[in-house]
Protein backbone atom coordinates (compact mmCIF):
# COMPACT_ATOMS: atom_id res chain seq x y z
CA UNK A 1 0.00 0.00 0.00
CA UNK A 2 2.80 2.41 0.92
CA UNK A 3 4.65 1.73 -2.34
CA UNK A 4 1.46 2.31 -4.35
CA UNK A 5 0.90 5.61 -2.58
CA UNK A 6 4.51 6.67 -3.17
CA UNK A 7 4.24 5.88 -6.87
CA UNK A 8 0.99 7.82 -7.11
CA UNK A 9 2.60 10.83 -5.44
CA UNK A 10 5.57 10.68 -7.84
CA UNK A 11 3.18 10.60 -10.80
CA UNK A 12 1.37 13.59 -9.28
CA UNK A 13 4.68 15.46 -8.85
CA UNK A 14 5.65 14.92 -12.49
CA UNK A 15 2.19 15.92 -13.76
CA UNK A 16 2.00 19.04 -11.64
CA UNK A 17 5.53 20.08 -12.58
CA UNK A 18 4.52 19.83 -16.23
CA UNK A 19 1.69 22.26 -15.48
CA UNK A 20 4.09 24.58 -13.69
CA UNK A 21 6.43 24.63 -16.69
CA UNK A 22 3.50 25.55 -18.95
CA UNK A 23 2.16 28.09 -16.47
CA UNK A 24 4.51 29.62 -13.89
CA UNK A 25 1.49 30.55 -11.74
CA UNK A 26 0.45 26.89 -11.47
CA UNK A 27 1.70 25.90 -8.01
CA UNK A 28 0.30 23.91 -5.14
CA UNK A 29 -2.45 25.67 -3.20
CA UNK A 30 -2.82 25.38 0.58
CA UNK A 31 -5.78 27.62 1.24
CA UNK A 32 -8.15 28.57 4.03
CA UNK A 33 -11.15 30.82 4.37
CA UNK A 34 -11.09 33.48 7.07
CA UNK A 35 -14.59 34.41 8.33
CA UNK A 36 -14.72 38.14 9.01
CA UNK A 37 -17.09 37.65 11.95
CA UNK A 38 -14.26 35.92 13.83
CA UNK A 39 -12.16 39.09 13.85
CA UNK A 40 -12.75 40.00 17.51
CA UNK A 41 -11.72 36.57 18.83
CA UNK A 42 -9.36 35.47 16.05
CA UNK A 43 -7.70 38.42 14.28
CA UNK A 44 -5.67 37.82 11.10
CA UNK A 45 -2.47 38.05 13.16
CA UNK A 46 -3.52 34.78 14.85
CA UNK A 47 -3.06 32.82 11.61
CA UNK A 48 0.07 30.70 11.30
CA UNK A 49 0.87 31.76 7.75
CA UNK A 50 3.65 29.17 7.39
CA UNK A 51 0.89 26.57 6.92
CA UNK A 52 -0.86 28.26 4.00
CA UNK A 53 -0.29 29.81 0.59
CA UNK A 54 -3.66 31.57 0.17
CA UNK A 55 -6.15 33.04 2.64
CA UNK A 56 -9.66 34.10 1.56
CA UNK A 57 -11.45 36.93 3.36
CA UNK A 58 -15.09 35.84 3.74
CA UNK A 59 -17.28 37.55 2.73
CA UNK A 60 -18.05 40.68 0.74
CA UNK A 61 -21.45 41.10 -0.93
CA UNK A 62 -22.24 43.49 -3.79
CA UNK A 63 -25.08 46.00 -3.62
CA UNK A 64 -28.40 44.40 -4.52
CA UNK A 65 -29.19 47.07 -7.12
CA UNK A 66 -25.93 48.49 -8.49
CA UNK A 67 -23.94 45.26 -7.93
CA UNK A 68 -21.01 47.38 -6.81
CA UNK A 69 -19.27 46.87 -3.48
CA UNK A 70 -20.28 49.46 -0.90
CA UNK A 71 -17.50 49.30 1.70
CA UNK A 72 -18.32 51.08 4.96
CA UNK A 73 -15.65 52.49 7.28
CA UNK A 74 -15.64 49.50 9.64
CA UNK A 75 -15.28 46.99 6.82
CA UNK A 76 -12.61 49.16 5.21
CA UNK A 77 -10.52 48.95 8.37
CA UNK A 78 -10.96 45.18 8.52
CA UNK A 79 -9.86 44.78 4.90
CA UNK A 80 -6.77 46.93 5.31
CA UNK A 81 -5.91 45.06 8.52
CA UNK A 82 -6.39 41.71 6.78
CA UNK A 83 -4.16 42.39 3.80
CA UNK A 84 -1.50 44.42 5.61
CA UNK A 85 -1.13 41.62 8.16
CA UNK A 86 -1.03 38.70 5.75
CA UNK A 87 0.04 39.69 2.26
CA UNK A 88 3.79 39.60 2.93
CA UNK A 89 3.46 35.89 3.81
CA UNK A 90 0.55 34.57 1.73
CA UNK A 91 -1.64 35.53 -1.21
CA UNK A 92 -4.92 37.13 -0.17
CA UNK A 93 -8.27 37.05 -1.95
CA UNK A 94 -11.70 38.28 -0.95
CA UNK A 95 -14.59 35.87 -1.35
CA UNK A 96 -17.90 37.16 -2.68
CA UNK A 97 -21.20 35.81 -1.41
CA UNK A 98 -21.22 32.77 0.85
CA UNK A 99 -23.73 30.13 1.82
CA UNK A 100 -25.81 32.56 3.85
CA UNK A 101 -26.29 34.98 0.96
CA UNK A 102 -28.44 32.84 -1.30
CA UNK A 103 -28.47 32.67 -5.10
CA UNK A 104 -30.93 35.39 -6.13
CA UNK A 105 -28.57 38.39 -5.99
CA UNK A 106 -25.99 36.66 -8.18
CA UNK A 107 -28.60 35.44 -10.63
CA UNK A 108 -29.71 39.04 -11.19
CA UNK A 109 -26.15 40.35 -11.35
CA UNK A 110 -25.11 37.82 -13.99
CA UNK A 111 -28.24 38.27 -16.11
CA UNK A 112 -27.23 41.39 -18.09
CA UNK A 113 -24.04 42.77 -19.59
CA UNK A 114 -24.50 46.07 -17.73
CA UNK A 115 -24.87 44.50 -14.27
CA UNK A 116 -22.02 42.07 -14.92
CA UNK A 117 -19.67 44.87 -15.91
CA UNK A 118 -20.65 46.94 -12.88
CA UNK A 119 -19.84 44.00 -10.61
CA UNK A 120 -16.58 43.18 -12.39
CA UNK A 121 -15.26 46.75 -12.45
CA UNK A 122 -16.08 47.20 -8.76
CA UNK A 123 -14.41 43.90 -7.81
CA UNK A 124 -11.19 44.99 -9.50
CA UNK A 125 -11.33 48.40 -7.82
CA UNK A 126 -11.77 46.81 -4.38
CA UNK A 127 -8.97 44.32 -4.97
CA UNK A 128 -6.50 47.04 -5.96
CA UNK A 129 -7.56 49.53 -3.30
CA UNK A 130 -7.19 47.05 -0.46
CA UNK A 131 -4.18 45.27 -1.97
CA UNK A 132 -5.74 41.86 -2.51
CA UNK A 133 -4.21 39.41 -4.97
CA UNK A 134 -7.57 38.40 -6.37
CA UNK A 135 -11.15 37.39 -5.73
CA UNK A 136 -13.20 34.26 -5.19
CA UNK A 137 -16.83 33.90 -6.30
CA UNK A 138 -18.95 31.89 -3.84
CA UNK A 139 -22.30 31.80 -5.64
CA UNK A 140 -24.29 29.14 -3.79
CA UNK A 141 -25.66 28.09 -6.19
CA UNK A 142 -26.73 28.76 -9.80
CA UNK A 143 -30.32 27.49 -9.81
CA UNK A 144 -31.00 26.59 -13.43
CA UNK A 145 -29.49 26.22 -16.87
CA UNK A 146 -29.86 29.93 -17.61
CA UNK A 147 -27.91 30.78 -14.45
CA UNK A 148 -25.17 28.42 -15.58
CA UNK A 149 -25.03 30.05 -19.01
CA UNK A 150 -24.74 33.46 -17.38
CA UNK A 151 -22.13 32.09 -14.96
CA UNK A 152 -19.98 31.18 -17.99
CA UNK A 153 -20.46 34.61 -19.59
CA UNK A 154 -19.56 36.29 -16.29
CA UNK A 155 -16.30 34.35 -16.10
CA UNK A 156 -15.46 35.18 -19.73
CA UNK A 157 -16.01 38.89 -19.19
CA UNK A 158 -14.29 38.93 -15.81
CA UNK A 159 -11.11 37.46 -17.28
CA UNK A 160 -11.17 39.94 -20.16
CA UNK A 161 -11.38 42.88 -17.75
CA UNK A 162 -8.70 41.47 -15.46
CA UNK A 163 -6.33 41.08 -18.40
CA UNK A 164 -7.16 44.57 -19.63
CA UNK A 165 -6.53 46.11 -16.20
CA UNK A 166 -3.25 44.24 -15.86
CA UNK A 167 -1.99 45.51 -19.21
CA UNK A 168 -3.05 49.09 -18.44
CA UNK A 169 -1.47 49.18 -14.96
CA UNK A 170 1.48 46.84 -15.66
CA UNK A 171 0.58 44.87 -12.53
CA UNK A 172 0.25 41.08 -12.29
CA UNK A 173 -3.18 39.79 -13.24
CA UNK A 174 -5.54 39.39 -10.31
CA UNK A 175 -6.47 35.82 -9.45
CA UNK A 176 -10.02 34.68 -10.18
CA UNK A 177 -11.28 31.60 -8.32
CA UNK A 178 -14.67 30.19 -7.38
CA UNK A 179 -16.15 27.98 -4.69
CA UNK A 180 -18.38 25.35 -6.30
CA UNK A 181 -20.67 22.42 -5.53
CA UNK A 182 -19.09 19.05 -4.78
CA UNK A 183 -20.42 17.65 -8.08
CA UNK A 184 -20.19 19.19 -11.56
CA UNK A 185 -23.95 18.72 -11.88
CA UNK A 186 -26.86 19.04 -9.48
CA UNK A 187 -28.54 15.66 -9.29
CA UNK A 188 -29.93 15.81 -5.75
CA UNK A 189 -32.26 18.81 -5.86
CA UNK A 190 -33.76 21.43 -8.14
CA UNK A 191 -33.49 21.59 -11.88
CA UNK A 192 -30.76 19.41 -13.32
CA UNK A 193 -27.90 21.70 -14.40
CA UNK A 194 -24.14 21.51 -14.81
CA UNK A 195 -21.28 23.91 -14.38
CA UNK A 196 -19.77 25.33 -17.60
CA UNK A 197 -16.47 23.45 -17.47
CA UNK A 198 -14.95 24.93 -20.69
CA UNK A 199 -15.39 28.48 -19.32
CA UNK A 200 -14.02 27.43 -15.93
CA UNK A 201 -10.95 25.84 -17.54
CA UNK A 202 -10.37 28.92 -19.66
CA UNK A 203 -11.01 31.71 -17.17
CA UNK A 204 -10.49 30.60 -13.56
CA UNK A 205 -7.14 30.07 -11.92
CA UNK A 206 -8.73 27.26 -9.89
CA UNK A 207 -11.98 26.17 -8.25
CA UNK A 208 -12.54 25.28 -4.61
CA UNK A 209 -14.62 22.11 -4.49
CA UNK A 210 -16.81 22.11 -1.39
CA UNK A 211 -16.43 18.51 -0.35
CA UNK A 212 -18.51 18.74 2.83
CA UNK A 213 -22.05 19.25 4.14
CA UNK A 214 -23.18 15.91 2.74
CA UNK A 215 -25.06 15.17 5.97
CA UNK A 216 -26.34 17.50 8.68
CA UNK A 217 -29.20 19.01 10.64
CA UNK A 218 -31.56 18.93 7.62
CA UNK A 219 -31.79 15.14 8.17
CA UNK A 220 -31.91 14.13 11.82
CA UNK A 221 -33.09 10.58 11.23
CA UNK A 222 -29.58 9.08 11.17
CA UNK A 223 -25.97 10.01 11.79
CA UNK A 224 -23.66 10.54 8.82
CA UNK A 225 -20.17 11.34 7.62
CA UNK A 226 -20.63 14.94 6.49
CA UNK A 227 -17.48 14.91 4.37
CA UNK A 228 -17.16 11.23 3.42
CA UNK A 229 -14.43 10.43 0.92
CA UNK A 230 -16.29 7.24 0.00
CA UNK A 231 -19.91 6.17 0.41
CA UNK A 232 -20.89 2.72 -0.84
CA UNK A 233 -24.58 3.45 -0.32
CA UNK A 234 -24.92 6.66 -2.35
CA UNK A 235 -23.24 9.08 -4.75
CA UNK A 236 -22.96 11.72 -2.04
CA UNK A 237 -19.23 11.54 -1.48
CA UNK A 238 -16.02 13.33 -2.34
CA UNK A 239 -14.75 10.57 -4.61
CA UNK A 240 -17.96 10.58 -6.62
CA UNK A 241 -18.16 14.36 -6.84
CA UNK A 242 -14.55 14.60 -7.96
CA UNK A 243 -15.11 11.94 -10.62
CA UNK A 244 -17.93 13.99 -12.14
CA UNK A 245 -15.70 17.04 -12.51
CA UNK A 246 -12.91 15.01 -14.08
CA UNK A 247 -15.27 13.19 -16.46
CA UNK A 248 -16.69 16.55 -17.53
CA UNK A 249 -13.21 17.64 -18.60
CA UNK A 250 -12.18 19.88 -15.71
CA UNK A 251 -8.42 20.33 -15.62
CA UNK A 252 -7.00 18.53 -12.60
CA UNK A 253 -4.52 21.37 -12.13
CA UNK A 254 -7.49 23.65 -11.38
CA UNK A 255 -9.21 21.41 -8.81
CA UNK A 256 -8.79 22.14 -5.10
CA UNK A 257 -10.05 19.70 -2.45
CA UNK A 258 -12.22 21.29 0.22
CA UNK A 259 -11.85 20.08 3.82
CA UNK A 260 -14.00 21.05 6.83
CA UNK A 261 -12.57 22.29 10.11
CA UNK A 262 -15.92 21.57 11.73
CA UNK A 263 -18.20 18.64 12.36
CA UNK A 264 -21.92 17.83 12.37
CA UNK A 265 -23.72 16.47 15.42
CA UNK A 266 -26.73 14.28 16.14
CA UNK A 267 -28.64 13.00 19.16
CA UNK A 268 -28.70 9.21 19.10
CA UNK A 269 -31.95 7.31 19.48
CA UNK A 270 -30.08 4.57 21.33
CA UNK A 271 -26.62 5.29 22.81
CA UNK A 272 -25.73 1.62 22.34
CA UNK A 273 -26.19 1.89 18.56
CA UNK A 274 -23.64 4.47 17.55
CA UNK A 275 -21.99 3.79 14.20
CA UNK A 276 -22.28 5.86 11.03
CA UNK A 277 -25.91 5.66 9.94
CA UNK A 278 -27.14 4.95 13.47
CA UNK A 279 -30.74 6.05 14.18
CA UNK A 280 -30.99 9.59 15.53
CA UNK A 281 -33.78 11.77 16.90
CA UNK A 282 -32.38 15.29 16.49
CA UNK A 283 -29.28 17.44 16.41
CA UNK A 284 -26.57 17.10 19.01
CA UNK A 285 -24.39 19.71 20.73
CA UNK A 286 -23.32 22.94 19.03
CA UNK A 287 -24.94 25.71 17.06
CA UNK A 288 -27.66 23.99 15.01
CA UNK A 289 -25.74 20.75 15.23
CA UNK A 290 -22.37 22.19 14.25
CA UNK A 291 -19.09 22.30 16.19
CA UNK A 292 -15.67 23.54 15.08
CA UNK A 293 -12.77 21.12 15.33
CA UNK A 294 -11.50 23.15 18.28
CA UNK A 295 -14.85 22.67 20.04
CA UNK A 296 -14.95 18.98 19.16
CA UNK A 297 -11.55 18.40 20.76
CA UNK A 298 -12.76 20.17 23.90
CA UNK A 299 -16.04 18.24 23.95
CA UNK A 300 -14.30 14.89 23.52
CA UNK A 301 -11.87 15.60 26.33
CA UNK A 302 -14.43 16.98 28.77
CA UNK A 303 -16.90 14.15 28.14
CA UNK A 304 -14.39 11.30 27.86
CA UNK A 305 -15.89 10.56 24.45
CA UNK A 306 -15.21 7.42 22.46
CA UNK A 307 -13.42 8.45 19.25
CA UNK A 308 -13.56 6.15 16.22
CA UNK A 309 -11.80 6.36 12.86
CA UNK A 310 -13.97 4.93 10.07
CA UNK A 311 -11.83 3.67 7.21
CA UNK A 312 -14.82 2.95 4.96
CA UNK A 313 -15.78 6.62 4.69
CA UNK A 314 -12.37 8.05 5.68
CA UNK A 315 -13.83 10.07 8.52
CA UNK A 316 -14.00 10.12 12.30
CA UNK A 317 -16.78 10.25 14.84
CA UNK A 318 -17.06 10.54 18.59
CA UNK A 319 -19.75 9.39 20.99
CA UNK A 320 -20.59 10.51 24.52
CA UNK A 321 -23.95 9.29 25.81
CA UNK A 322 -26.50 10.22 23.15
CA UNK A 323 -24.25 12.89 21.61
CA UNK A 324 -22.71 11.88 18.26
CA UNK A 325 -20.23 14.02 16.29
CA UNK A 326 -18.95 13.32 12.79
CA UNK A 327 -15.79 15.16 11.75
CA UNK A 328 -12.37 14.99 10.09
CA UNK A 329 -9.34 14.23 12.26
CA UNK A 330 -5.65 14.13 11.42
CA UNK A 331 -5.94 10.58 10.06
CA UNK A 332 -8.81 11.33 7.69
CA UNK A 333 -7.23 14.56 6.46
CA UNK A 334 -3.93 12.82 5.73
CA UNK A 335 -5.69 10.04 3.82
CA UNK A 336 -7.84 12.48 1.86
CA UNK A 337 -4.82 14.48 0.78
CA UNK A 338 -2.96 11.33 -0.29
CA UNK A 339 -6.03 10.57 -2.39
CA UNK A 340 -6.07 14.12 -3.80
CA UNK A 341 -2.46 13.81 -4.83
CA UNK A 342 -3.05 10.41 -6.43
CA UNK A 343 -5.74 12.17 -8.48
CA UNK A 344 -3.25 14.94 -9.39
CA UNK A 345 -5.24 17.76 -7.86
CA UNK A 346 -3.78 21.25 -7.39
CA UNK A 347 -4.15 21.52 -3.62
CA UNK A 348 -6.60 21.87 -0.76
CA UNK A 349 -8.45 24.45 1.29
CA UNK A 350 -10.18 24.59 4.67
CA UNK A 351 -13.43 26.08 5.82
CA UNK A 352 -12.63 27.79 8.10
CA UNK A 353 -9.20 28.67 9.48
CA UNK A 354 -10.40 29.76 12.94
CA UNK A 355 -11.77 26.27 13.62
CA UNK A 356 -8.46 24.46 14.03
CA UNK A 357 -7.06 23.43 17.41
CA UNK A 358 -3.38 24.24 17.98
CA UNK A 359 -2.95 23.97 14.18
CA UNK A 360 -3.17 20.17 14.41
CA UNK A 361 -5.19 19.65 11.24
CA UNK A 362 -3.47 22.39 9.23
CA UNK A 363 -0.03 21.05 10.15
CA UNK A 364 -1.05 17.51 9.21
CA UNK A 365 -2.31 18.79 5.86
CA UNK A 366 0.92 20.63 5.06
CA UNK A 367 3.02 17.60 6.04
CA UNK A 368 0.81 15.30 3.95
CA UNK A 369 1.07 17.49 0.84
CA UNK A 370 4.42 16.66 -0.76
CA UNK A 371 4.37 19.48 -3.33
CA UNK A 372 5.32 22.95 -2.08
TrEMBL record:
<dbReference type="Pfam" id="PF00704">
    <property type="entry name" value="Glyco_hydro_18"/>
</dbReference>
<dbReference type="InterPro" id="IPR001223">
    <property type="entry name" value="Glyco_hydro18_cat"/>
</dbReference>
<dbReference type="InterPro" id="IPR001579">
    <property type="entry name" value="Glyco_hydro_18_chit_AS"/>
</dbReference>
<dbReference type="InterPro" id="IPR029070">
    <property type="entry name" value="Chitinase_insertion_sf"/>
</dbReference>
<protein>
    <submittedName>
        <fullName>Nod factor hydrolase protein 1-like</fullName>
    </submittedName>
</protein>
<feature type="signal peptide">
    <location>
        <begin position="1"/>
        <end position="22"/>
    </location>
</feature>
<dbReference type="InterPro" id="IPR050314">
    <property type="entry name" value="Glycosyl_Hydrlase_18"/>
</dbReference>
<keyword id="KW-0378">Hydrolase</keyword>
<keyword id="KW-0732">Signal</keyword>
<comment type="similarity">
    <text>Belongs to the glycosyl hydrolase 18 family.</text>
</comment>
<dbReference type="InterPro" id="IPR017853">
    <property type="entry name" value="GH"/>
</dbReference>
<keyword id="KW-0326">Glycosidase</keyword>
<feature type="domain" description="GH18">
    <location>
        <begin position="28"/>
        <end position="372"/>
    </location>
</feature>
<dbReference type="InterPro" id="IPR011583">
    <property type="entry name" value="Chitinase_II/V-like_cat"/>
</dbReference>
Amino acid sequence: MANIMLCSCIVFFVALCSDVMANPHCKGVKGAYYPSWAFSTFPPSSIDTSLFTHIYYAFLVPNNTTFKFDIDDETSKLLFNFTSTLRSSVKTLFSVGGGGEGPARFSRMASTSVSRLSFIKSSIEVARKYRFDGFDLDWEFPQNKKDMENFAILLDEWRVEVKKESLATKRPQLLITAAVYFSVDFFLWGEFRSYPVPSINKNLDWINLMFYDYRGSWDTSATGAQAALFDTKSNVSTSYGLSTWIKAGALRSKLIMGLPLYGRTWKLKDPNVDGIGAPAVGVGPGDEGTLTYREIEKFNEENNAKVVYDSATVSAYSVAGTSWIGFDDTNSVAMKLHYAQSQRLRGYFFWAVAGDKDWKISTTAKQSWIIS
